[in-house]
Structures are given as C-alpha cells and as structure tokens.
Amino acid sequence: MKLAYNIAIDAYRNNEVPVGAVIAHQGEVIASAHNQVELTGDPTAHAEILAITQATQKLEDWRLNECTLFVTKEPCPMCSGASVMARIGRVVYAVPDPKMGFMGGALDITKVQSLNHHIELSAGVLEEDCRALLSHFFAGKRV
Question: CA-CA distances (angstroms) from residue 2 to 6, 23, 107?
C-alpha cells in the first residue's frame, strides 16, 4: 500500500485526484498507476483501470485471479466492476468512500451473490496517510 500511496502523490503533483493503484501477483508488483483523467481527458483513466490493463498485458491473461489490487481509495462503481470482470482475487484499499465506493461504501459489489466472481476484500490499510492526501488535495480545490 505504501507504493500505491507514493504513486498517489505523483497524481497529486500532476493535479489529478490522488489515487494510486498497484497490482501484485505472487508477491511481485506487476502493475502500478495513478489517475490520469485530467491528463488524458478520459473519464475512465482511473488508477485501477490503468493498472488492470497493465497487469493483463504483463500476464498475457485477462483473468487476474491470483492478483491483489492495492488502491488508496475505495474503488468507484466502474473500477469495482472492472475488478470483478478481471477476476481480481483480492482488493485492499485505504480510504472508504461512503458516497461513490462500491466495495462497502455506497454499495458493496462483493455482496452481490449472482456475480460469477467474488473478491476477497480488506479495508483501512494506511488509511490515515491516504485520507490526509485526499483531504489536502480537495481543500486546495475549494479555495
């Protein structure tokens, strides 16, 4: 999660919402990204989506069952859905998002029984640091 946090700092420095994502496979980092929505003008350029794309290319397989996604903020609906579609085995996030989070915040995609894949979930890892970064970023936007 510390690597994801450091990547989120890069996003912050680039005027992107400071979310960082890292994907590990069998203990090895195979993908990392931060939000690039402003840079690309693409609303789908979230850290999780970019990291999933990198990981599938690295493994040459769209199924990421044996992978763990570490992300600094609870995934949104799009990123939660992409995690299920990519068959990610585990998601670890830092900051819960009660408004837009779909892994326990606003809704919990991991509780949908009809899905053909279920994700192991952990929350609150490095939460204070990641929350402070997000809060500082958005405080600067509201000035």
Answer: 6, 12, 26
- pLDDT at 30 exceeding the cut of 90: yes
CA separation, residue 62 to residues 15, 31, 75, 86 (Å): 30, 13, 19, 6
Task: Answer for the pair 20, 34: CB distance below 8 angstroms, yes or no.
Answer: yes
Closest CA to 73 of 45, 97, 49: 97
Annotation says 48 is catalytic: yes
Single pTM value for the model? 0.95
Does 138 have pLDDT greater than 90? yes
Q: How far apart are CA 26 and CA 89, in angstroms?
A: 11
Residue tagged active-site, from 16, 28, 38, 48: 48
19 contacts 33 by C-beta, under 8 angstroms: no
Mean pLDDT value of segment 100-122: 95
Contact status, residue 55 vs residue 31, Cβ threshold 8 Å:
yes
Can you tell me whether residue 68 is helix, strand or coil?
strand
